[in-house]
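Format notes (please read before filing issues)

Several people have asked whether sequences and structure tokens are stored in separate files. They are not. Every record keeps both together, in the order shown below: the sequence lines, then the token lines. Line labels are part of the format and must not be stripped during preprocessing.
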Amino acid sequence: FVPSDTATGSMALDRIMEDENQPRQSYDEVALTKFAEHLKVHGVQQPIQLTWNEAHQKWMIVYGHRRYRASKLAGLNTIPCIFADQETDTETIRVRQLVENCQREDLAPMEMARAIESLSLLTNWSNRQMAQELGLTHTTIGRYLDLLKLPDDLQQRVDNRELAPSVAIDVLKLKDAAAQSRVGRQIVEKKLNRQDAKRHIDAAAGTNTTNQRSGNQDKQFGSQELLTKNVNITVFRNPNISNAKIQAELIAAARQ
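Then the structure lines:
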């Protein structure tokens, strides 16, 4: 997605306003301060985009809110800009903001998820098309959207960086929202790493392979575990007999 630009230049910071409805709502203040120090030395290398807001009689940021904030912290007076067409409608502005924000690596996971969802609703793009436009994989788009299926309390834990997004997605193996919240809270409280969290989730979901095997051994006695532990034979396969029949006869022989 390439925005349509009409003019470039610079603008005084005091003539610029932020768009309160833009996708990014949180900022890492430590990173913002470091960015400001960088701008003091090197200046703003990538222009922000502005559009005229008649109601406030100011230039409103389409994208580049973080650069704008860092520039103010750095004590700069002006910032390089691209001026969007004054006829740009709200929907187009939002699409530009979402695309620009989604392409930034430092966007928080839940903000990214919400931005992708908003982009989908605005454009009716498929996951595959969004992946192409944003430079992400189709799988990555799907995993971000999966985060929005989490209960609100777990979304907040992801927002607070208490719960890793990859672990949070694993929690979705549990079909019940209450169970998801409970297990997610336990993972955070016990400070489990990814591997231990996965085991904890599998156990809660009843997918522990050891328990399954011991509970269903007679039903699924099938097979290789029984044969390898109890039988040491050489089999010459008859091509006219099905695999299922051969397996059944071997199991029967092993049980004798």
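For reference, the curators noted about this record: Residues 109-123 form the longest helix (15 residues). The radius of gyration is 28 Å.
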